[in-house]
Amino acid sequence: MHTAITIDALKALDAIDRKGSFAGAATELFRVPSAISYTIQKLEEDLNVSIFDRTGHKAVLTPAGRYLLEEGRSLLEAAENLAHTTRQVAQGWETRLRIGFNSLLPAHCLFTAIEEFYQLGVPVDVQIVEEVFAGAWDALQSRRVDMIVGADQLSKPAGSFATKALGEVSFVFAVAAHHPLARVSEPLTEASIARFPAAVAADTSRALPPGHAGIFRQQRTLTVSNIDQKIAVQEAGLGVGWLPLHRIREQLGRGSLIAKTTHEPRAAISIHLARHNEGKGKALMWFWNRLSEDQSIRNWLQPEHT
């Protein structure tokens, strides 16, 4: 059965949207702009719909075009996953390994393991992806990543997953040294905290229920993309909230952030390595075993670590 919608056409449409122009898409796809224009024009003719509105100075997607793009990206991802799995079965080694890490951990926790993996000389591309809160499990469940470093147990979905404990993340309620709450007697009450905006790292989950720990009713929020930005916002005095202790030892040491006790302390959470039970790729299992046996992340999480 012939269909007008091809992988090639969807790739062109996706590239045009991401790059903002037909010329940018052509550069990314190593094609001439006329070839990109022809691909889209033929797709419009075959579907008998207008994908782009060309009445203005710049072509913009029509509602039909936007729908095609969004649904087409799912097909592109499925095709990519199919190709990836086929190569994995044929070669033994994956051609790509996607490692998600919870924003509670800094990316550099993975650098030593990645450097050692490169010394093996195997042709595997490694991608590290930052996820926030429930987004870590969501990325694994939806197979956007192959394994997660720092998955919590609170947002774990149903499914067949293998996990190994890494340690516990302790939290402190932190405010900037010049913030009004820095001078308020402890323990801080909900009423005193709720007067100021809460700094919030947006949960990256797409399907699982997002987390929202530490925000009081009626409290305004200032939302950022990850824990690094949340730390910066709180250090600037623009918001308050709970932060992982191991991420702000430097700020606490130099006094730019101050830890305050509250009437309702926040419990530490356990974090884990996680993967699908059936995941057995050579690169996946190398990182699984390497990170399981390495004590550096566990030691770094210890409250007494400096």
UniProtKB/TrEMBL annotation:
Entry annotated with the keyword Transcription regulation: yes
GO molecular function: DNA-binding transcription factor activity; transcription cis-regulatory region binding
Domain HTH lysR-type: 5-62
SUPFAM superfamilies: Periplasmic binding protein-like II, Winged helix' DNA-binding domain
Pfam families per the UniProt record, alphabetical: HTH_1 (PF00126), LysR_substrate (PF03466)
Assigned keywords, A-Z: DNA-binding, Transcription, Transcription regulation
InterPro entries hit by this protein: LysR_HTH_N, LysR_subst-bd, WH-like_DNA-bd_sf, WH_DNA-bd_sf
Family: Belongs to the LysR transcriptional regulatory family.
Name of the protein described by the UniProt record: LysR family transcriptional regulator
